[in-house]
Design brief:
alpha/beta, Rossmann fold, Dihydrodipicolinate Reductase, domain 2, 8-stranded mixed sheet, 6-stranded mixed sheet, binds adenosine-5'-diphosphate, binds aspartic acid, binds magnesium ion
């Protein structure tokens, strides 16, 4: 697999910037092959044009300064003989430039910069080859260009090909250029020809933004753009991307990443065939030739955020926006010459002198009124719950953004064998595929174990680590994650049912690091149980008792069971077959799962409960752990009369049998509360009496609530768990 990295003039403006570029290239080149396309160093092309036009008298000062800049970079990057050789090469290229016809002088900037880059990469030990775009890119002949490039980058023994951007050859062999900003187009041609997995444009801003940041400091990165939308913005003055670069990438289906050389871990913008997801209802505001463009996405809706908007409504929305735009311009004292509505948004012609003021005002009105925070997610676990979560994020992203002002973005995902991390964001639709076929998704998608280590290395502060695994030891990482500034949301019950000191340490780490640690899903899936208990505890309400009927499996079986009907063993087997039990159904009977839940409940209420504080009476009188599964079922069948009798006795009293975990005040107990798990007869007036199917019920009695708080409802299901996790993330 080969990737294309393009560095703009802003990224190679001086030695410091060039060192960053070298670092970025180095990291990538250790993973796979690379074509690096370089622009001239910042300002060089303008200087060459000035030299060619002879603007400076005999152009001497201009050219001396330009040569000096390049030599200065060489002095910083090389030592000894390397320095001499590099300086000599640039000096002689300079002489060539001065001797060249005026209209060819401008083509030398990319030669200077890429020769230096290629030399330095070779000196660092990469198998590097400089390739000559003047011979490979034939102006106006795409097929021939692709053929030549493919041949040129075939050699598998080369790690990095370095090519000058911007310059090309004419069919008759003269040198030419691809237009100002054309290095982006060169890079796209290289990417398409080589079948690259990604085209990364490294520049001085973190992506395509809602406006030009130099004019509108509050501009924000647009995370995802469709090819068409990116091209539209580029054509309308968003000069971060040269519009012609879009087509070759789009035709070859190659995603374009716009990334920031000065902050490589920032997510930037991903441009692909998928619809745009902006940061507001509108994509951006830009200016070109004294026309200001407020642009919406081109998929027929105002943007992908205003889902379900019919085209008639869309036109109405654009008209409304035009009126709003005119009003705010007038409020700024700007009288637009003309305001037009088009299907891509609103256009206003303004005087040059007020262009920047107009951009600022329009941006403020359309992009700064509804702040959107990006919530970055790393998801561990791609089982039923992890999958449901990813799916839910995909489906509810826009709603979430509209309702909460938070934009969800997955930066990493892992199952037990692979992980994928991409700081520019992984679309929910590709996230699960990313795990299956890690190659092909880049940059930064890597296949190894050690997801947590990678998260610790790259995660931005304030990201959320989501544990949807059922790993018994992942909790050891929680503290380190929180210390690194990540929030933790866990649906992994095992992580919370650890010894109390460890539980308390995790809670303390969250507090001390100013992050949240939430795990509502660990008891009763989507039911707001822990939140309700902690609300009481936060406000000094004192728990009198908690009763929890929270085993979905047992609730289902006990609800179905009637003496004389299918035996308990039969029902358990049925539950196992429909995936309702643990892999080993004995675990559902021995109370271990209920034990974890009651520990979590008690601790949330402020009690330092330990396993040893809980008296567990398993559902079956003797442990059958030593048997194989078939023998176990047989033994269970043999206990049928015991079950039947207990049920008959309960029925005679007007009661039903339920598996209840409870905590109640008991001054003689270590924690001041007695905790137990057992089968109990519940009366018709008890909330658990009427439970249906896998339903859960929690009954909390507290000092402030003379009538108990009852929370009852569906206590399981991957979708419910996912919704609970998402709410923990957003809360
Ligand atoms: P490079 O030299 O890397 O090709 P350019 O200078 O051509 O970079 O483009 C980057 C510049 O584009 C940024 O510094 C920024 O000021 C400008 N720009 C204009 N509009 C936008 C926009 N909508 N989003 C991001 N950058 C923009
Ligand atoms: N160096 C050329 C320019 O300044 C090409 C580029 O940077 O893309 O226009
Ligand atoms: Mg450019």
């Amino acid at each position: 697999m080969i990737s294309v990295y393009k560095f703009g003039g802003s990224s190679v403006a001086d030695a410091t910037a060039t060192s960053r570029v070298l670092d970025i290239i180095g990291v990538k080149a250790r993973e796979g092959r690379l074509i690096v396309v370089g622009s001239a160093i910042g300002g060089c092309t303008d200087a060459l044009l000035a030299i060619a036009e002879g603007i400076a008298p005999s152009s001497r000062p201009e050219s001396t300064a330009l040569l000096e800049r390049h030599l200065g970079i060489i002095r910083r990057l090389f030592t000894g003989a390397e320095r001499e050789a590099a300086s000599d090469e640039i000096r002689s290229l300079f002489d060539e430039m001065l001797a060249a016809p005026d209209d060819e002088k401008v083509t030398f900037g990319e030669l200077f910069s890429t020769r230096i880059l290629a030399r330095k990469l070779a000196a660092e030990g990469f198998r590097t080859r400089w390739i000559d775009s003047r011979k490979l890119i034939v102006d106006g002949q795409i097929e021939e260009t692709y053929r030549r490039i493919r041949e040129a980058v075939q050699d598998p023994d080369i790690d990095i090909f370095v090519a000058p951007g911007f310059i090309a050859g004419t069919p008759d062999g003269r040198v030419t250029t691809l237009g100002r900003g054309g290095s982006d187009y060169s890079a796209a041609l290289y990417a398409a020809a080589a079948g690259a997995d990604a085209l990364c444009k490294w520049t001085d801003v973190p992506g395509m933004m809602t406006a030009d940041r130099r004019k509108v400091p509050a501009a924000r990165t647009i995370p995802f753009l469709s090819y068409g939308d990116a091209e539209t913005l580029a054509l309308r003055g968003a000069k971060v991307l040269y519009a012609p670069a879009v087509k070759p990438a789009m035709e070859a289906g190659i995603p374009i990443h716009i990334l920031n050389t000065f902050c490589p871990s920032e997510a930037g913008t991903v441009i692909s065939a998928a619809p745009s997801t902006g940061v507001a209802e509108w994509l951006g505001v830009s200016a070109k030739d004294h026309t200001i463009y407020l642009t919406c996405s081109g998929d027929g809706t105002l943007s992908s955020h205003t889902t379900g908007m019919a085209s008639g409504e869309n036109a109405a929305a654009i008209h409304y926006a035009a009126a709003r735009l005119e009003k705010i311009l007038r409020a700024e004292g700007i009288a637009p010459k003309q305001v037009r509505c088009t299907e891509r948004g609103v256009e206003a012609d303004v005087k040059e002198s007020v262009e920047n003021a107009a951009l600022l005002a329009i941006h403020r009105e359309f992009f700064e009124t509804a702040p959107v925070d990006t919530v970055d997610l790393f998801i561990a676990g791609a089982g039923a719950v992890g999958k449901a979560l990813v799916d839910l994020i995909g489906r509810s992203r826009e709603t979430v953004e509209k309702r909460t002002g938070k934009a969800l973005r997955i930066l990493g995902i892992a199952d037990s064998r692979h992980y994928a991390v991409r700081l520019s964001g992984i679309r929910p639709e590709e996230a699960l595929q990313a795990l299956g076929e890690i190659p092909g998704i880049s940059p930064g998608m890597t296949e190894k174990t050690g997801f947590v280590e990678e998260v610790l290395r790259v995660a931005p502060k304030g990201a959320v680590f989501v544990d949807c695994t059922d790993s018994t030891d992942i909790y050891h990482s929680y503290t380190a994650l929180m210390e690194a500034g990540l929030h933790v949301v866990s649906s992994n019950r095992r992580s919370l049912a650890v010894p109390f000191v460890e539980y308390a340490a995790m809670k303390a780490a969250a507090l001390q690091n100013g992050v949240f640690f939430r795990h509502e899903t660990t008891v009763g899936a989507a039911l707001p149980i822990l939140e309700s208990i902690s609300r009481g505890a936060n406000t000094c309400d004192e728990v009198i008792s908690i009763e929890a009927v929270v085993s979905c499996t047992l609730n289902q079986i006990l609800g179905e069971y009637t003496p004389g009907g299918p035996s308990f063993a039969r029902l358990l087997r049925k539950a196992q077959e429909s995936g309702l039990t643990e892999a080993d159904p004995r675990q559902d009977l021995d109370g271990r799962d209920a034990l974890r839940k009651i520990l979590i409940l008690g601790r949330e209420a402020g009690l330092p409960l330990e396993e040893a504080d809980v008296e567990v009476t398993p559902l079956i009188p003797e442990p059958l752990d030593h048997l194989d599964l078939e023998a176990f079922y047989k033994a269970l069948e043999g206990m049928e009369p015991v079950f039947a009798k207990a049920f008959e006795r309960a029925a005679a009293k007007g009661c039903r049998r339920r598996f209840v975990a409870s905590i109640e005040r008991d001054a003689s107990a270590r924690t001041g509360y007695r905790a137990c798990i057992r089968m109990a007869d519940v009366e018709a007036s008890h909330p658990a009496y009427h439970l249906r199917g896998t339903e859960n019920a929690i009954i909390v009695q507290s000092a402030f609530h003379p009538y108990p708080l009852v929370i009852q409802g569906a206590g399981e299901g991957a979708r419910q768990a996912a919704s609970s996790i998402l709410n923990d993330i957003l809360r």
